[in-house]
Design a protein that fits this description.
- The structure is a single chain.
- Helix content is 23%, strand content 29%.
- By secondary structure, the chain is an alpha+beta fold.
- Strand 22 and strand 23 (393-395) form a beta hairpin.
- The radius of gyration is 30 Å and the shape is elongated.
- It starts with a helix and ends with a strand.
């Protein structure tokens, strides 16, 4: 550089005040200073500066106060299906309208068999809060036919699966409690697996983890964390290959595999929600005893049995009706709220049957609150769902009462003498029951904690 050039640079001659190796940084003209900014700074300023935008870019909707920030259009709107105006966002390049929500993006996911895919047409009560991955499949998943695609985008529901209904009830409970309404991604994945071992290594499992990864990708685009809020497993009836004695260990192995897979993508796993399914009781693959074992000796990943199948209305194909799906969703949402509050969800478990005098049996449970023998018998249970059988057949029951002194115990008076050896007592094993605890919730008044089925030998 010549001495003249150096003098010009130092004194500002040539209209350059500051120059770097890659060019002029500050220049000036007759109107003032001219700054050369990096692409990163320009992008940051673009995000910070609010430019008026015509609401017509959203189509014919009742929207106002549009702002472009980064890759998103933020706006207020009064949209169909919502109780009133609120904030929304949509990608500038187009796509689904999403509710602008507080907190993390929640995932409500499930793994199972064909029954899990049942869906009710329609978007539901929170059409902009409950979404699915944008892959044109919806909430029902790929059914094991092909690999789920990777995507960071979401779309609205066309139909409501059990997971979508659960998400809806979670939002309803939060709304009536005055809490924030988060964005929830729902997805169910199934395949043609015939055993728990196959399910743990099949395409449905891989697609479920893809849904979890898509949850994280969606949250990242929204500049939010992702959180797994609920995981359900429905596979008691569909497993036709696992031997009876191996079903409980196989289910624990599946839940452990799921937990490890979630940890690997930095999602904290949650205990799996299940229904105690007494319909899965065909000879050679009776799942009732295994489910009782899982209920009594559950692990860190559960399962948490939210209710027994006798509390649900099923059709001829043993699939839940729409009313049953909605009741299950309300029950599971209440269970999740109790778990979140640190109180846990505990359907009474029948643990011990022992002689009480000559003609009575005491049934001991681990109910968290005093037991109730439902007076209106909503499921048509005989003798409250209790049955006593000896070596020579059924023993008639004279009365069933909750012990006033030990309200977590049930006293069963027999109408006849019975042998003291080889006597078996069952609750809701081959039919409905009528026993629950006294837990209630003003937020979900029709939800009850029904006792889980059991079959025990009478001791003493």
């Amino acid at each position: 550089m010549s001495s003249d050039e150096r003098r010009i640079e130092q004194t500002g001659d040539g209209r350059v005040l500051l120059r770097a190796r890659n060019g002029d940084v500050i220049r000036y003209d007759d109107t003032g200073l001219i700054l050369k900014l990096s692409d990163r700074v320009v992008a940051d300023l673009r995000q910070r500066l609010v430019v008026p935008i015509d609401a017509e870019v959203l189509g014919d909707v009742d929207a106002w106060n549009l702002r472009a920030l980064g890759d998103w259009l933020f706006f207020d709107a009064n949209l169909p299906g919502m109780p009133g105006p609120r904030g929304y966002r949509r990608a500038i390049e187009g796509g689904a309208i999403l509710a602008e929500t507080p907190g993390p993006v929640l995932g409500v996911l499930s793994l199972g068999g064909a029954r899990r895919t049942r869906a009710i047409p329609g978007a539901g009560a929170y059409p902009y809060h409950i979404v699915v991955p944008e892959d044109d499949i919806g909430a029902v998943g790929m059914a094991g036919i092909e690999d789920a695609p990777e995507t960071h985008r979401a779309e609205g529901l066309r139909e409501q699966t059990q997971d979508a209904l659960l998400a809806e009830e979670m939002l309803r409970l939060r709304q009536v409690s005055g809490r924030g309404l988060p964005l929830i991604l729902a997805r169910c994945e199934t395949d043609r697996s015939a055993s728990l071992a196959d399910l743990a290594s099949g395409k449905a499992f891989d697609n479920l983890m893809r849904a979890a990864a898509n949850l994280k990708a969606l949250a990242e685009t929204l500049n939010k964390p992702a959180k797994l809020a609920a995981l359900s497993v429905d596979f008691a009836l569909e497993d036709i290959l696992t031997p009876e004695a191996e079903f409980a260990p196989a289910m624990r192995a599946l839940l452990e595999t799921l937990a490890k897979a979630f940890w690997q993508i930095d999602l904290r796993p949650v205990p799996a929600l299940m229904v105690f399914d007494t319909t899965a009781s065909e000879p050679g693959r009776d799942r009732r005893a295994a489910q009782w074992e899982l209920a009594v000796y559950g692990g860190e990943m559960g399962p948490v049995f939210t209710l027994p199948s006798y509390a649900l209305e099923l059709d001829e194909a043993l699939r839940p009706t729409e009313a049953a799906m909605r009741l299950r969703a309300r029950t599971e949402a209440a269970a999740l709220m109790e778990i979140e509050a640190g109180r846990g969800w505990h359907c009474p478990r029948v643990l011990l049957a022992e002689w009480e005098g000559k003609r009575a049996i005491r049934l001991r449970t681990d109910a968290a609150t005093p037991l109730v023998l439902e007076a209106d018998n909503p499921f048509g249970a005989v003798d409250g769902g209790l049955r006593i059988a000896g070596p020579e057949g059924a023993i008639a029951i004279a009365s069933v009462t909750v012990d006033a002194d030990e309200p977590r115990d049930v006293l069963i008076e027999m109408a006849e003498n019975a042998p003291r050896k080889g006597l078996m007592l069952s609750y809701a094993w081959d039919g409905p029951g009528a026993l629950r605890d006294s837990w209630t919730s003003s937020l979900a008044p029709d939800v009850k904690r029904w006792a889980l089925p059991a079959r025990l030998e009478v001791h003493g």
